[in-house]
Hints:
Elements: H1 2-28, E1 30-37, E2 43-51, E3 56-59, H2 64-74, E4 78-82, E5 102-108, E6 114-120, E7 123-128, E8 153-157, E9 161-169, E10 178-185, E11 189-190, E12 196-197, E13 207-213, E14 216-221, E15 231-239, E16 245-252, E17 260-268, E18 273-277, E19 285-289, E20 292-296, E21 303-307, H3 308-313, E22 331-332, E23 337-340, E24 345-352, E25 359-370, E26 373-382, H4 388-392
Antiparallel strand pairs: 1-2, 2-3, 4-8, 5-6, 6-7, 7-8, 9-10, 10-13, 11-12, 13-14, 15-16, 16-17, 17-18, 19-20, 20-21, 22-24, 23-24, 24-25, 25-26
Amino acid sequence: MKKKYLVPAAAAAAALVLLAAALLWYGRSRSFRAVFPLSGSVEVSCRAQWTPEEGQGYARDLTGEQTSQVLGALKEQQLRRRYGDLLPWGGEGPVTSSMGESLLLTFRDRSGVSCELLFLGDRMWLHDLERDWGASYSLSGGQVFQEELTGVVYELVRPKAETVGTVYADLDGDGSDETVRLCAEETVEPDESGVPLVTDEAALRPYRLETEVDGRAVACALGDAGERYEGVARLFVTADRAGAPVIVAGLSEEGESGELAVYALSWDSGTGSFVRLEAPRYSIQGLLEGTTAHVVVPETGNAEDLDLNWWLSRQNAQTAPEAGQPGAPEQAGGICGVGPAEQGIQVIQPLWNRDQAEKMGWLVTQVTWKDREPAVVSQYFDWQAEAAEDVLR
């Protein structure tokens, strides 16, 4: 009888040993399958083995085609740089649940340098293999791909819009105002490796208007080619000649010129969308006769004579007494100021002499729209104001 139960008992003991070993191994190493919906349409999955205590792991069935899909999808992603944040990697720190969603990709950047992209949940780590000899990685089946990780962490994010201004206007003429938001997205710029990053240093941002009309969300990008701007100078509501509301945004151009990109948009009830209206800028011609400058705006025929001796007498605070005659105003700069008018908008342009060494005054134009075409209401020269803001006061 004892012999009858000896084999089963031995088998049970062996099974317990195997179960204990399996549980021990399961506690140290686990297989997982991670899916990364990187672009909304491309999904890449792989199985990998992870040993938490040793801080090691390997990808088992990631194909070259999958790698290419991910790298292609990365071009459409937004990556925000995270500073001062190290991965919870290795035996010293706790193993978090995001460890079960890690993926390593190898590629060469535009300069031909071998790089690695490590995905860890919603984070991403970029490693330059040729400049850091403290770590080595490989996607070859079963080989250890991680020995030591230190460096910058990246976070995979979608484009995020932030509301930077709000105005109210009765767009559809039903007697109640709609809320119109001016939104700006985070800036995405490629780094030296070609990876698009959202950085704190980048200042230029794309803008758009958003609203809801009859329960339907509507958005309108400000710029046909994804133009980006440094900030918002003005945002207001005015009206065209027929009294229909016009949303106006003045966005600061890049650089120190002080110029604005002026977007004026009306609502088209037929299409249920915004329509951009032209905010024109004008040119000037100047002719010098003695100490008198004859200045004319070719587009409108508006003209005025400027006494240069009088003009110089007003520059005592800015110009040395021995300064010579500046010449006639001959160039009109871009729009650097915009504000609401009783009908339409006022746009301000600086006036310069030939070599742009002297800003001599301002061209002030009131523009409205009739049947969505710009029409000049009034136009004059201001030779006294020091800044565009002074003209708009």
